[in-house]
Write a structure and sequence with these properties.
Length: 260
């Protein structure tokens, strides 16, 4: 018992108290799916706390799959508690990293390489790096026979590495993980409480040796988290335009019950 040896249990952190109160409001049905939570400033005033504590409380709710956060604010999810978080951890095929990469199958071989090197100067500032500073860089190549049909280079930010334990371990022992499988990167990010937004620009670039001089399709992708930090920059190249990307998206139906 707490008082047996003259010790008492440590107090519950304030952010957990706030998270529990918000959670009870959501689970009671007071805040319905799609409802936008009050702004951090308003929540801080309501709970007589600071905004950093409110952010920690909201992070707890995101990790439990109760809310999602975007530029417009934090919203109550329509899934039952636990279901959304479980789906994020499963990393559906369309969410694999790098997005749009071909999976190995008959006639197509894929190879990856993870290195610790400097990002181009044009990317460094966006990623929160000093010019010349190194970060984790992921290379991906898909080939059909002796012809490269897809190539991707991804630069990961220090903020992303710091929040995903597995990436931090790769950073420390990179020489042992040069062929690391990062396909579940977006699931790991979700598990860390990150809500990611993808922005892409498609261009036709001049041909090179890989495309036999034929113009090639390029996708420049920037991924940002809910704090508007750039966490990934990827250049995905298709040396032969006929091998362009095909995306599959699903939009789950809401649980709408017919009127009685």
């Amino acid at each position: 018992m707490p008082g047996t040896h003259g010790h008492s249990l440590p107090p519950v952190p304030r952010y957990l108290e706030i998270a529990r109160d918000l959670k009870s409001t959501i689970e009671s049905g007071t805040s319905t799916p799609g409802h936008r939570l009050p702004a951090e400033r308003i929540l801080a005033e309501h709970y007589r706390s600071n905004r950093q504590t409110i952010r920690q409380a909201l992070d707890v709710l995101r990790q439990e799959g109760l809310i999602s956060t975007e530029k417009r604010g934090s919203f109550v999810r329509g899934d039952r508690p636990g279901e959304a978080h479980a789906r994020l951890l499963q990393a559906p095929p369309e969410a694999q990293f790098p997005l749009g990469a071909l999976s190995p199958r008959a006639g197509i071989a894929a190879s990856t390489r993870l290195v610790w090197e400097a990002a181009p100067a044009t990317y460094a500032t966006q990623l929160g790096l000093r010019p010349g500073s190194r970060t984790l860089v992921h290379y991906y190549t898909a080939s059909a026979g002796d012809r490269v049909i897809q190539h991707a280079v991804s630069y990961l930010s220090p903020s992303l590495i710091a929040q995903i334990p597995l990436l931090a371990r790769y950073e420390r022992t990179l020489s042992h993980h040069t062929h690391s499988d990062l396909r579940r990167l977006y699931a790991w990010a979700a598990d860390a409480g990150l809500s990611l937004e993808h922005n892409e620009q498609l261009t036709m670039a001049p041909g090179d040796d890989r495309s036999d001089g034929v113009p090639q399709l390029e996708i420049h992708r920037e991924v940002r988290d809910q704090h508007h930090r750039t966490v990934e920059i990827t250049l995905l190249t298709f040396p032969h335009a006929e091998q362009g990307p095909i995306y599959h998206f699903t939009s789950p139906a809401r649980d709408v019950r017919p009127p009685l």
